[in-house]
């Protein structure tokens, strides 16, 4: 996935001279996770820009640049640090189009990293905060779950004329997958049915998607799982999710963010409302309880859900 994101950045910087990359250590250092390696050498310091440690300045300057014709790609090292730039996203970038009567666009992409419990990165470096930005009008929210999706969705995000929050999962950077050599994009707002099945629909994001796919393999012949990646949470492809729910009659939503007012709970509510008379059981939600992510590996494993939690929930469904 690391290379897929790098490819997307390289292709878009090459395609559009108004695009530039900005953030902490994105230049000669190649990014804290090595995602931007080589870009500074090719495009120079005017288009791959290292900044001081100020998330508000990174996002704020990028929002302003978007207003006057540039296409900035801002990197925030960890999603946890987005709190320092929340005002620039919530009260500036997301609202400019509305404040100026639709006469302006803000083609801003903010890349950031969530997850990280498996790296024992502790409370200030492990949160999955994509749900927070679903509450903000004018913002699109995109999740990278596979290398193929990461490249295609990032290219679409960069080309969008609306602000996009693009979340990459720390524990998926080394995940391998097939990516076409030719340039391609994936439309924002289209879910992907990663595996077809008949008994239970599992709607899963990022690392949870891979847990669900592995579980589908292990349960083959016993329980048939249909596994869906929403890919974008805002806009959300409710049609694909609801049609699957109507087919299987049982739904589990798995996401690594908090359950309270979180993405999984929101998806569950939308699906249950639209597919109510087709369901054999209430939609089940898997996520993180209202607690910080612990540093201790044992405690982190207890707090952050995994494949065992998905399997246990599936086996608890009635009439299965």
Structure description:
It contains twelve helices and twelve strands. It is α/β, with parallel strands linked by helices and 320 residues long. It folds into two domains: 171 residues, Thiamin diphosphate (ThDP)-binding fold, Pyr/PP domains (Rossmann fold); 125 residues, Rossmann fold, CATH 3.40.50. It has a seven-stranded mixed sheet with strand order 2-1-3-4-6-5-10, sandwiched between helices. The protein is globular, with a radius of gyration of 19 Å. The two termini are 36 Å apart. 48% of the residues are buried. Its EC number is 1.2.4.-. GO terms for molecular function: oxidoreductase activity. This is Alpha-ketoacid dehydrogenase subunit beta.
Topology, element by element:
Elements: H1 2-15, E1 19-23, H2 39-43, E2 48-50, H3 55-67, E3 71-76, H4 86-93, H5 96-99, E4 109-114, H6 130-134, E5 140-144, H7 147-159, E6 164-169, E7 192-195, E8 200-204, H8 206-218, E9 225-229, E10 232-234, H9 238-248, E11 251-258, H10 263-274, E12 284-288, H11 297-303, H12 307-316
Parallel strand pairs: 1-2, 1-3, 3-4, 4-6, 5-6, 8-9, 8-11, 11-12
Antiparallel strand pairs: 5-10, 7-9
Helix pairs in contact: 1-7, 3-4, 9-10
Summarize the model shown.
With 320 residues, this protein is of the alpha/beta class. The protein has helices spanning 2-15, 39-43, 55-67, 86-93, 96-99, 130-134, 147-159, 206-218, 238-248, 263-274, 297-303, 307-316, and strands at residues 19-23, 48-50, 71-76, 109-114, 140-144, 164-169, 192-195, 200-204, 225-229, 232-234, 251-258, 284-288. The strands form two sheets. It has a seven-stranded mixed β-sheet, sandwiched between helices. It has a five-stranded mixed β-sheet with strand order 7-9-8-11-12, sandwiched between helices.
């Amino acid at each position: 996935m690391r290379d897929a994101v790098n490819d997307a950045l390289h292709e878009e910087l090459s395609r559009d001279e108004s695009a530039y990359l900005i953030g902490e250590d994105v230049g000669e250092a190649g990014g804290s996770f090595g995602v931007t390696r080589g870009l500074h050498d090719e495009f120079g310091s005017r288009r791959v820009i290292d900044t001081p440690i100020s998330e508000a300045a990174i996002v704020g300057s990028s929002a302003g640049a978007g207003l006057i014709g540039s296409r900035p790609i801002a990197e925030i090292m960890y999603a946890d640090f987005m709190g320092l730039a929340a005002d620039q996203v919530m009260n500036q970038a997301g609202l400019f189009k509305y404040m100026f009567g639709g006469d302006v666009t803000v083609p801003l992409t903010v890349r950031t990293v969530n997850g990280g419990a498996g790296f024992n990165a502790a409370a200030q470096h492990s949160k999955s905060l994509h749900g927070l930005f679903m509450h903000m009008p004018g913002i699109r929210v995109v999740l990278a779950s596979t290398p193929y999706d990461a490249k295609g969705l990032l290219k679409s995000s960069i080309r969008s004329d609306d602000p996009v929050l693009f979340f990459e999962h720390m524990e998926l950077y080394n995940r391998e997958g097939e990516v076409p050599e030719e340039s391609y994009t994936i439309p924002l707002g289209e879910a992907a049915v990663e595996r077809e099945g008949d008994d239970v629909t599992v709607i899963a994001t990022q690392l949870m998607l891979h847990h669900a796919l592995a579980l589908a393999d292990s349960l083959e012949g016993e329980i048939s799982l249909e596994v869906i990646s929403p890919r974008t949470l805002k806009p959300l492809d409710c049609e694909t999710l609801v049609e699957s729910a109507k087919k299987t009659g049982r739904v589990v939503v798995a996401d690594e963010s908090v359950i309270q007012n979180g993405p999984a709970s929101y998806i569950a509510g939308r699906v249950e409302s639209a597919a109510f008379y087709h369901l054999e059981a209430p939609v089940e939600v898997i996520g993180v309880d209202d607690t910080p992510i612990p540093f201790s590996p044992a405690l982190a494993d207890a707090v952050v859900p995994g494949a065992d939690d998905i399997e246990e929930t599936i086996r608890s469904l009635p009439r299965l």
